[in-house]
Amino acid sequence: MNEFLQQFVIESRELVDAAGGGLLALEQSPRDAERLDEVFRAFHTLKGGAAIVEFAAMEAAMHAAEEVLAEARAGRRPLTPAGIGQCLAHLDRAAGWLDAIERSGELPEVAGGQPVQAPSVPAEHGVPDWVTDLVDRNRVAAARALTAIRFVPGVDCFYQGEDPLQRMISLPGLVALELTPRESWGAPATLDPFRCNLILTALSTAPAADLHGHLQGHSGDCGILPITTRVEDSAGSLPPHVMGVIEAQRAFLGEGSPQSFAGRVGAAGTVAANALRFCGRPESSERIFRATRQSLLALSVQPLRDALAQLLADETPAEAAAAADSVRATESLARTLRIDADQVDAVVRLAGELTVINNAIGHVTRLVRAGDPSAADLLKERQAALEHLVGELRRSALRMRVRPLRSVLQRFPRLVREMSANLRKPVKLVIVGEDTEADKTIVEMLFEPLLHLVRNAIDHGVEDSGERTAAGKLSTATLRIRAERSADRVLIEVSDDGAGIDVARVRNVALQRGLITEEQRLTLTEAEALDLIFAPGFSTSTKVTEISGRGVGMDAVRRAVERVGGHVSIRTVAGSGTAVKLSLPFSVMLSHVMTVEAGGQMFGLPLEAIIETTRVPQAAISKVGAAPVIVLRDRAMPVIDLAKVLGVEPQADVDGATLVVATANGECAAFQVDRIVERLDLILKPLEGLLAGTPGIMGTTLLGDGRVLLVLNIAEMLR
Amino acid sequence: MTVRAAAGGHIELVGACPSADAESLLQLLLADPGMTVDWRDCQTAHTAVVQVLMAVRPRLLGPPADARLKDWVAPAIA
C-alpha cells in the first residue's frame, strides 16, 4: 500500500469512529447543534479524503450522508432515527471499504459514484455484510446454497397488489428465509398495516440466473448474489503446517521394511487423525482413522495412503489459498499501530545505552581473558546495569503495545442499538472507563467475550418492557460496561438491571444436561450452582434466537478469558440483575511464576493462583476413596500429585510432602511437588501450531540453561 | 371472513388471508393485546398479515396447515 493511501486509511478510520460515536449521541439528543456540527465535519473530511485518493464511491456515500446532516443543520428537516440509521449505513460501507483497502492495498472496485444504499451491491469488492450475516446464521442451509437474495420491497407495494413474501416462499430451491423490519416496529397502535416495512433475505440452492425471473417486475430493491465463499469450508481450512504434517505421514508410509508395517501404519494414521482432530475436523479425522484400520486389516498401506492423498487433494487448491489470504489479512491489520513519538525516542535512547553496556561487557571479557582479578566484580556491576536496562526496555516495549479499551468498547453502542431494536427491548447502554488501558493482545481478544456477554444480557437478562413495568422498573433497561484498572489487572464488568438468573432453574437444567447428579443439585451452594452456567454444554435458553443462539455458551467466554490469564466471575440478584466481571492481566507478556520440580522436571505455576506453600508429613494426607485429600486451615482439598497427572515418574518422598496450594474459579487444590525452586518473572510464549490449545498448559518460556519451562494453567488442571 | 374472533379469546386465521385481513387482525389485536392467534387452518397469508404478526407478536397457536407457511414463515417470525 502506498504511504498516501495508508495515511488515508488511518485518518478515515478515526473519522469513521468519531462520526459513528457522534451519530449515536445525536440519537439521544437530536438537538445538540454542536454535536451535529462535529458529525457533519467528520463526514465532510471523509468526503474530502476520498476525493483526494480518487475514491468516487466513498465520496458519493459520504456526500449522501452529508446531505442528510446538512438538512438538519439548516433546520429544514429534523434528524430522525431513520436519518441517523441511513448515515450509519453509509459509515458501515465506508468501514467495509477501508477494511478492503487495508487487505489489498488498493482501492476496491466499486461502481464509481453510484448512489448509495442500493442493496444490490456488486460482489467484486468483497461479500456484503448482509450475505456474511445471513450465511453465518444459517450455516447448515448455506452449505448447500448457491445464491443469497435480499429483497427490500417498496413501502407502498401492498397497494400495487404485490405480495413479496409469497414471491420469496415460491422461489426455487429455497433453503433459508429471514424477515427483518426495515425500521423498528414501534408501538402496535402506530403500525400502518399497509406500509411494507420488511426486508426479506433468503438462501437458495438455485443458481442466480434462475432466480432473476422470479423476482422481476416488482417494486423495491433486489440483490441476488452468488455465494462465492462457502463458510462451512473456510471454517475448517487446514493451516499449512498441518498440511505439512499430513504430507509427511504419507511419505512416511512408503518407507521402511515390511516388519515395521503395523507400527508405521498405526503411527502415521494416528498422527494424521490427531492433527485433524486438533484443527476441528472430526469427520476427516474419523475417515483417516477408518482407513488406518482398513490398512491394518488388509495388511496394505494402500487404503490409508489413498485416504491421505484424497485429503490433501481436497484441501490444496482453494483452502490453502483462503488460509493464506486470512493470514495476510490479520498480518496487515496488525501492522499499523499509532505510537507516541516520545515512546519511540525512549526506546532509541535505550538501544544506545545497551550498546554502551555491550562495549563495557566486551571490555570485561578481555580482562577475564587476561586473568585480571577485578574482572568478576566488574562483571557483576555491568550485569546489574544491564538488568536495569533490559527491564526498562521491556517496559518501554510493552508500553508501546498499550491501547485504550475505547477501540473495543466504542463498537457496542451500535450493536446494542441494533439488538435492542431487533428484540424490541429498549436498552440504554452506559460505558464507564473507556480510557482504561491494556495490552493490545488483551484489547483485541476482548471483543468476542464482551459481545457474548452483552448479547446474553439483552436477550436473556433484560425482560420485555411490559414485564419490567409490571415489576415496577423503568421500561428502558440499563446495560453497563464498566472498565477499570486495579494494580496490574484490568477489570471489566458487564451488568444489567434485568431479571437476574434463576439459580434453581440453573440447577435443573444442569441436571437435565447431565452436568451434575441429583445429589449435587440439592447440595451445591448458590455460588457453585451459578458457576454451572460456565460449564461446557450448558445453555439455559430453550429457543435459539438470532441474537444469542449461536451455539457459543458462557464456557467460550470463560475459555477465552482464561487463555490470556484472566478469570470470570458472576453475581446475580433475582429481580434486579446480573453482573459478569472479567479480571484480565494488564499485560499478557510478563508473568510471575513459581517454578517447581516434579518427577525430575521443572514446571511453572502462575503465582497469582498460589495461596500458600507448605510441607506436611505423609500421614496428614488421608484418602477418601481412591483420592488423596488434606485438611489445611480447616479446609479439605484434593491433593494432586503433579508428577502423576503430568505423566512423569514421581519421586518417592518418605518424610513428607511439599504442597503448593492453588486456587482457580473458587476451587482449591494442593499440588504435590518434589521441590519448590524459585520465583521468576518471565515473558510467556503461548503454545503455537499443533500444540495450540493443549489443555492444562498456559505457555512456555526458555530457562537460563536453555531448558523449556512449561507453565501450567491451574484453572484447566482443576477442571 | 378469513380472520375472525372466535370463542375463548382466540383470533382465527382461516384459509387464504388477503392483505385486507391485516387491518382487521391489527384492530382485533389492539382491542385485546392478550389474544392468541390460531393460524392452524391458515392456507396462505399475505405479507401484510404476516407483518402484523411480526410487529404485534401475539401468542401463536400453530403450526399452520400449509407446508410453506409452516416451514418458512413460522420460523421467520418466531
Provide an overview of this structure.
The complex is a heterodimer of chains A (719) and B (78). Chain A contains 25 helices and 22 strands. With 719 residues, chain A is an alpha+beta fold. In chain A, strand 10 (567-573) and strand 11 (577-585) form a beta hairpin. Residues 111-125, 229-236, 317-334 and 542-551 of chain A have low confidence and may be disordered. The radius of gyration of chain B is 11 Å and the shape is globular. The relative contact order of chain B is 0.20. The chains are: A alpha+beta (719), B alpha/beta (78). The interface between A and B is medium-sized, with 26 and 28 residues.
Topology (elements, then pairings):
The complex is a heterodimer of chains A (719) and B (78).
Chain A: H1 3-28, H2 33-52, H3 56-73, H4 81-104, H5 129-137, H6 139-144, E1 147-153, H7 164-169, E2 174-181, E3 198-204, H8 208-215, E4 220-226, H9 231-235, H10 240-253, H11 261-278, H12 282-298, H13 302-335, H14 341-369, H15 375-400, E5 402-404, H16 406-409, H17 412-423, E6 427-432, E7 437-439, H18 440-461, H19 465-470, E8 477-486, E9 489-496, H20 503-512, H21 518-523, H22 526-531, H23 554-563, E10 567-573, E11 577-585, E12 590-598, E13 601-606, E14 610-617, E15 622-624, E16 627-632, E17 635-641, H24 642-645, E18 656-664, E19 667-673, E20 675-683, E21 697-702, E22 708-712, H25 714-718
Chain B: E1 3-6, E2 10-13, E3 15-17, H1 20-31, E4 36-38, E5 42-45, H2 47-56, E6 59-61, H3 67-77
Parallel strand pairs in B: 2-4, 3-5, 4-6
Antiparallel strand pairs in B: 1-2
Helix pairs in contact in B: 1-2
